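Pilot study result, target chain (344 residues):
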Amino acid sequence: MRVKINRIMHTIIHFVGNKGKDEGVNFSNDETSFDNIEKDICNTFQESFHMEEKYCFFSKSNLNDIPTFVSVKSIFNDHSSFIIQSRNIANLLYEKSLHPKIKPGEVCFLLLDCEVDGNSTEALCILKYEKNQRILQLKKKDNNYLALIQEGFSLKKLEKGCIIFNVNPDLGYQISLLSGVKKQEEAKYWLDEFLQCQPISNEYRKTECLLEAISSYITDEVPLFCNANKLSQFSMLNNCGKSIKSNEVIDINELGKSIFEDEELQKDFSRYIDDYQSENNISLDTPFNASKSAIKRKKIDKPRLIKLDGSFEIRIRKNSEMIENGYDEEKKMNFYKIYYRSEE
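Predicted structure:
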């Protein structure tokens, strides 16, 4: 998804505390002006949000059963409702802020004029700032400097946030999240309870899920199936990385054959993928185009570490075929043999 943010149309900031600690909600009466930093804010959004991984509001019955969806739709339909609906959304967030790890913070609402894949549209950005930072500011006066300590929020370290694009409203819009927000355990309330959204099944999502399934299978299941050691696992992961990077289209059956030499292991891998699809409500059966950004982000063939008896570590970056392992009958110990051309 190609996104260009042109300008900020409306902005307002409210305070949302932790309801479990009875910290309350404080509303602003008027909008906040970001005129002086509009360009910086727009650039930050382009860099901080992961635009290719798309989400949408989801309900098994009716999207209008989701309060956040209803408020967002009202803003898109009538800009004059921006302030009142931002308060409603802030209240909704407060109602879901029950986890003891959820910190209080300022919640910023921005209505954006933007373009998605070349088409003009609008988007609502919701950001929550929780970590206030102390910043040293130096001001030059005559031939000297004045040192000042100021408190503020870093534009480079946004914590929780989403951009809801006014695209496909009947299907729950298209939502992009801050990079990494879904990895925070305490942020599940943001996705599952506050937004009530789910991933959209696209090339990125399919590629990411497949890489996740392969990594889990090789790491957790293969050792149980055939007593494979870590070197064999790393070799399988490297084979997977090479195969996916060299093919624009992913076919799971062919991929399984390129990763695993043993036919029984190929069959067990197919079973595992079937189970994974059912558990994660995603279809990976038919061939699909590989997402280069998902491959780059997941890095299934990243360097791997083998720890030996707490005394040695072997880090494998590539060329795992240059390492051999075996068992010394005389010493009754396992060993690794490494082939190399020069030391660095």
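One observation from the pilot: Residues 3-131+158-200 form one domain. A full batch analysis is planned for the follow-on phase.
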